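Take our chain:
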Amino acid sequence: MVVPNPESFPFGWRRQAKFSFTLVNQIPGELSKLRETQHWFDEKNHTLGYDFMIRLYHLNSREFLVNDELKIVAEVDVLEVVGKLDVPVETTEMVDINGFQVLASQVESVNSLFKKHPNFTSNLCLKNLHLRTTYLNILLSLNEILCKSPVKLSNGDLADAYFSLKYVAKAGFKLDWLEKALKEAGETRIQEVEKELNGLTQKRADMDALLVFLKLR
């Protein structure tokens, strides 16, 4: 962990922070690897890290590394401040909705999600509050992508949605409606690609015919 731009802080500044670093076990119900500590940062000591987290050969055996992907969750809480900057401070209000900590700006979206799909968390095995919130944030982004008109989704959007859906579903979320939306969007995109290819094929045929005509003259 590194304090950004420490030279911009006032003389004698100090910050006490609590932070956690979690290697996410991607098998639902299995334990993740958590390291957590508190530390005072100041002018001379503005970095801190872990020398050891987990042995490399344990990553695969403990299902931390799945499809060559490693999921990491980092949380930071500032506990005490000495030497404040002369800048406005923004407060982050968190609201509990059915066991999920969400931002005040997300309340409407999360409530709408539970209203439309009240059982989508019925098979959820995760107990860690931070991990539950992380998965929910991914789900909100995924839902926002797939609520767009299929014609507005790029190939990249569909690829991101596919891998995000696969990742979130592993945690135990029931996402039938998103799977259906992704399938429909994919089929629409395939039809568009086929139309584009047909158009290119026709253009190629026209060019070939033109070349034959020119050679005969």
Notes: The chain has two domains: 6-82, 94-193. The two ends are 75 Å apart (CA to CA). The helical segments are 58-61, 107-116, 129-146, 155-170, 176-216. Strands lie at 14-23, 33-42, 65-66, 69-70, 72-82, 94-97, 100-103.
